[in-house]
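Narrative of accomplishments. A recurring question from our advisory board has been how the design workflow behaves on a single, concrete structure rather than in aggregate. To address it, we present the structure tokens for one chain from the evaluation set, followed by the sequence designed for it. No filtering or post-editing was applied between the two.
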């Protein structure tokens, strides 16, 4: 039996780490609360995040600030059509002095990695990155290196320019825990952004959490209680994307070409736990599942040509599903 009271007390005792990170992020990032929450969710789940948004929305600044707050190595990889896998993971170089080959590690060897405009690089480079994300290890020549924890990749996509890009295949986007779509700030936030940049008010941040403490928080999130009713609710949501007619959603049958994979169920459970932790709870409630559902499933449901012809989005499909599936 899980002692919920003890779990709540443990989470309350450790939630100050997250509060410190939030405060540090808010010093630099104006608005974009959903972006910050999504980054923290992915970090606590030991997962990765795919961001879609136009340039200039503080995506790079967000992950750079997060790495500074945790005092963890950060690398940025600008994906371009001429990029090679060795430019990401590293390669073997010959040392004339030692008369032998040495390993030169690539930028993937960091705790926080920004894969900027991931859809600009060819499939071979994308695969090298995604393999490292999934396996948490990199093989260079005969040497295999484990990647240090925490390890978070934030990949970005520009939704506007599609010319000269290599869209990520569905099987590869499935590796990302979350796909987050971020929009423009409101008028007041934009005025604050102008002032911050004109007056040079970009606040320096200092480390507030150590890497080891983040790993401990990840372990704590894994202990958050999920009742069997919540598990059934998650499974129903995922199955409704595969067999919509069984859940009274006949209209969706001709709009969905394929439903969410079992990885969606796992990710929904993990992200719901992290969301509960961010709210200071030691147990998951249906609202946690609903809160993360769009970000978890957005990139895991395929639409038919009929849906695209009618300008129906995956977000609308997911909204129909969570509105129809019975809440425990």
């Amino acid at each position: 039996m899980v002692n919920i009271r003890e779990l709540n007390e443990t989470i309350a005792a450790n939630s100050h780490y997250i509060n410190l990170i939030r405060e540090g992020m808010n010093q630099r990032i104006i608005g974009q609360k959903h972006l910050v929450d999504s980054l923290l969710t992915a970090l606590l789940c030991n997962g990765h995040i795919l961001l879609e948004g136009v340039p200039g929305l503080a995506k790079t600044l967000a992950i750079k600030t997060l790495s500074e707050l945790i005092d963890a190595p950060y690398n940025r990889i600008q994906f371009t059509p001429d990029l090679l896998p060795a430019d990401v993971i590293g390669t073997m170089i010959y040392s004339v002095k030692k008369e032998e080959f040495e390993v030169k590690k690539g930028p993937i060897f960091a705790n926080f990695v920004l894969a900027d405009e991931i859809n600009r690089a060819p499939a071979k480079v994308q695969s090298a990155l995604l393999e490292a994300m999934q396996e948490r290890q990199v093989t260079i020549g005969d040497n295999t290196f484990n990647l240090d924890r925490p390890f978070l990749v934030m990949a970005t996509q520009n939704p506007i320019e599609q010319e000269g890009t290599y869209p990520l295949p569905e099987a590869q986007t499935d590796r990302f825990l979350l796909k987050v779509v971020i929009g423009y700030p409101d008028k007041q936030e934009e005025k604050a952004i102008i002032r911050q940049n004109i007056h040079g008010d970009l606040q320096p941040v200092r480390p507030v959490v150590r890497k080891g403490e983040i790993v401990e928080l990840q372990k704590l999130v894994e202990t958050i209680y999920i009742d069997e009713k919540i598990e059934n609710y998650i499974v129903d949501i995922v199955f409704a994307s595969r067999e919509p007619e069984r859940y009274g959603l006949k209209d969706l049958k001709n709009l969905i070409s394929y439903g969410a994979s079992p990885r969606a169920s796992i990710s929904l459970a993990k992200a719901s736990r992290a969301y509960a932790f961010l709210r200071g709870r030691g147990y998951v409630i249906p609202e946690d599942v609903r809160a993360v559902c769009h970000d978890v499933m957005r990139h895991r449901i395929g639409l038919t040509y009929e849906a695209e012809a009618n300008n129906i989005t995956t977000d609308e499909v997911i909204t129909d599903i969570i509105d129809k599936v019975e809440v425990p």
